[in-house]
């Protein structure tokens, strides 16, 4: 298998993303670098929807709670990949951003010189999870770095 | 941080409003307005020649200052940053109410009636300014996204709706509030507890996590997204569970807003029946108001009933949140104990106090005579609005005298005698008795016409109440267009998983069962 030195890994804890994390770790040479990107999709900003009955304080409590939850989930994913990277003697950096997943990945790919971008494949129908696609036409057309989409793991 | 944007947007909005006013006031729009009137009287003529002028001047003046002035951090800066978004919503509401909805009515009328329904498609689908306004809001946020300069102001829509509910307090009579309140407590009590229990029961059978069952039951049982927002932190819902629940509720809510008025029209439901059904069967509180105004766009009787149900729901919310908190603590070791007082205090809907205050003020006679009913009151003196030219003429008296023999009941005979002697109705009781006489159809058409005229002459609509009704209509239109701008396809797309299945079952059962109960138990009048 070909190995690389600088990988941009986009993952957020789904089964597909876990497969991508594993593949990214395995592809790296000793001492290589993984930059881990987690995107919080913008649809979360609309999650108070059309609520109008609650007081401002209840909405603030909800927003803070949601932020904490999303932050905790991201921290778990960072921690897992960071540990795996350390075990494989790789260097590791991370970034948590809010935005459209494809746009954020595209922007992150331009910030540093990466050899490869790695991500999981879209969730198959019937699998639980959020609906937020990262692989889009603008991404594949705009990406200047080779992209590896890791197949969804078999049952 | 400075929130006010140096943007020409608000100034341009002001100019557009002023242009609308100028074209309407100068007659430049006469041909177009005639087209929109579609052979009838155009309903919004007086609004078109006043509202856009007032708001246009305000928007243009503040817009010029926002565009060219300098802005500093502070409270005023924050409040100022909301004006552009608020005016943006208002402009959309104006365009939809005055032009888009009437245009759709013209096209729909031209297409003819739908099958044997006797209705045109716009009426059948409830395509009026309220529904079109919400849909326009949704299109704006999902297709174009809310411009940055408008984002702070879009949140004002909640204030608009709450103010609308507060003002609505002026329009209830004590008897009406008592009867509707009693009905809503029974209906909401049964269906809230029933659907919360049903979600928890089905959730238990399908082995969903307690946190998911907790947040879903609040959303499905009480008041949709609002209940989900209130309950999620208490039952420690996971992010994906919140997304599933809110997505499911939003899709149901938007769907119900379109489907309920169609069913209501097809079944020929009364305002009270439809208001009670929408207030119970629609999951999401915003869509309850939307459906009520969609069912009856040119009046607020349905909205009045539906909002009593909404208020009852929101009063039940702190209790359900507490119940779920206790339920969750018993089942999860990691759960934190809740402070009962804090939950009640934080979740108590303060605007309901405003509603009660306005109702109390209205009952004192500050806006209309204390004995008013739905803003109308009895008055047969010049001071109370009676005009002498409305006194019965000799010919009217002769017609009524000639029909005395047809009346059997003494109270009706006496009331008619007093009317003939004084040439006007002398008391609210006489008015009621004579209306009964008209409804009995015992007299000739001519005599009934005279009695109806005598009734109208002593029934007056309080000016302040009339103004409140207009304000309420606008506040709800404003609020609902703004709320439409906060319903994103991205969040609706998250509907899925177990919440979609359980929510679908419970939502359907609740809507169907409440329809049956309403049709069986609620008569035309409460």
Walk me through this protein's architecture.
The complex is a heterodimer of chains A (155) and B (526). The model of chain A has no long low-confidence stretch (mean pLDDT 89). Chain A has one domain (4-150): 3-Layer(aba) Sandwich (Rossmann fold). Chain A is α/β, with parallel strands linked by helices. Chain A has a 5-stranded parallel β-sheet with strand order 3-2-1-4-5, with helices on both faces. Chain A is globular and about 55 Å long. Chain A has helices spanning 15-27, 56-87, 101-111, 137-142, and strands spanning 4-10, 28-41, 91-99, 116-120, 147-150. Helix content of chain A is 40%, strand content 25%. By secondary structure, chain B is an all-alpha fold. Chain B has helices spanning 9-25, 30-37, 45-48, 51-68, 75-111, 121-124, 129-144, 151-154, 156-168, 174-205, 210-223, 225-231, 239-266, 271-281, 285-295, 301-331, 340-347, 350-363, 394-401, 410-422, 428-440, 445-458, 463-484, 489-492, 497-521; strands spanning 376-378, 459-461. In chain B, helix 10 (174-205) runs parallel beside helix 16 (301-331) and helix 11 packs antiparallel against helix 12. Classes of the chains: A alpha/beta (155), B mainly alpha (526). At the A-B interface, helix 2 of A face helix 9, helix 12, helix 13, helix 15 and helix 16 of B.
């Amino acid at each position: 298998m070909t190995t690389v030195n600088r990988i941009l890994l986009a993952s957020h804890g789904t089964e597909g993303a876990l497969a991508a994390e594993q593949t990214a770790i395995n592809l790296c040479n000793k001492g290589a670098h993984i930059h881990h990107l987690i995107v919080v999709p913008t649809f979360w900003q609309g999650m108070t929807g059309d609520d109008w009955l609650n007081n401002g304080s209840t909405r603030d409590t909800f927003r803070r709670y949601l932020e904490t939850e999303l932050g905790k989930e991201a921290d778990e994913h960072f921690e897992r990949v960071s540990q795996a990277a350390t075990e494989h003697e790789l260097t590791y950096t991370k970034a948590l951003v809010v935005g459209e997943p494809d746009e954020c990945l595209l922007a992150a790919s331009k910030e540093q010189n990466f050899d490869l971008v790695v991500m999981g494949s879209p969730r198959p129908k019937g699998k639980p999870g959020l609906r937020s696609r990262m692989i889009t036409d603008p991404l594949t057309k705009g990406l200047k770095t080779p992209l590896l989409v890791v197949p969804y793991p078999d049952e | 941080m400075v929130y006010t944007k140096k943007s020409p947007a608000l100034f341009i909005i002001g100019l557009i409003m002023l242009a609308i006013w100028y074209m309407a006031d100068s007659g430049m729009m006469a041909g177009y307005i005639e087209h929109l009137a579609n052979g009838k009287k155009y309903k919004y003529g007086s609004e078109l020649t006043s509202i856009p002028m007032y708001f246009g001047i305000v928007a243009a003046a503040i817009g010029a200052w926002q565009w060219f002035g300098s802005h500093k951090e502070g409270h005023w800066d924050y409040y100022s940053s909301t004006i552009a978004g608020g005016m943006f919503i208002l402009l959309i509401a104006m365009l939809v109410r005055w032009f888009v909805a009437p245009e759709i009515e013209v096209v729909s009328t031209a297409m003819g009636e739908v099958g044997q329904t006797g209705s045109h498609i716009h009426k059948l689908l409830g395509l009026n300014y309220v529904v079109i306004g919400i849909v326009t809001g949704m299109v704006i946020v999902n297709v174009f996204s809310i411009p940055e300069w408008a984002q702070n102001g879009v949140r004002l829509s909640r204030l608009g709706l709450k103010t609308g509910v507060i003002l609505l307090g002026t329009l209830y009579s004590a008897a009406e509030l008592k009867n509707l309140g009693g009905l809503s407590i029974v209906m909401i009590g049964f269906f809230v507890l029933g659907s919360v229990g049903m979600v928890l029961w089905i959730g238990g059978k399908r082995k969903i996590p307690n946190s998911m069952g907790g947040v879903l039951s609040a959303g499905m049982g009480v008041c949709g997204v609002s209940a989900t927002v209130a309950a999620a932190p208490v039952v420690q819902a996971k992010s994906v569970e919140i997304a599933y629940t809110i997505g499911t509720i939003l899709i149901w809510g938007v769907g119900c807003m379109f489907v309920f008025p169609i069913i209501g029209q097809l079944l020929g439901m009364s305002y009270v029946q439809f208001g009670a059904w929408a207030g119970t069967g629609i999951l999401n509180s915003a869509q309850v108001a939307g459906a009520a105004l969609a069912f009856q766009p040119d009046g607020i009787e349905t909205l009045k009933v539906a909002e009593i149900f909404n208020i009852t729901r929101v009063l039940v919310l702190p209790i359900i949140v507490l119940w779920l908190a206790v339920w969750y603590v018993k089942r999860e070791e990691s759960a934190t104990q809740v402070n009962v007082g804090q939950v009640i205090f934080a979740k108590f809907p303060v605007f309901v106090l405003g509603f009660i205050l306005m109702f109390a003020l209205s009952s004192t006679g500050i806006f209309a005579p204390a004995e008013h009913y739905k803003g109308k009151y009895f008055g047969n003196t010049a001071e109370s609005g009676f005009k002498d030219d409305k006194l019965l003429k000799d010919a009217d008296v002769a017609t009524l005298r000639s029909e005395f023999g047809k009346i059997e009941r003494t109270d009706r005979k006496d009331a008619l005698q007093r009317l003939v002697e004084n040439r006007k109705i002398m008391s609210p009781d006489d008015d009621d008795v004579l209306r009964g006489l008209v409804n009995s159809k015992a007299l000739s058409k001519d005599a009934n016409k005279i009695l109806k005229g005598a009734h109208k002459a002593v029934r007056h609509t309080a000016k302040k109440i009339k103004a409140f009704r207009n304000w309420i209509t606008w506040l709800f239109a404003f609020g609902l267009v703004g709320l439409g701008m906060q319903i994103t396809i991205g969040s609706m797309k998250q509907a899925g998983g177990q919440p979609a299945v359980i929510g679908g079952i419970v939502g359907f059962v609740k809507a169907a069962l409440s329809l049956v109960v309403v049709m069986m138990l609620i008569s035309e009048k409460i």
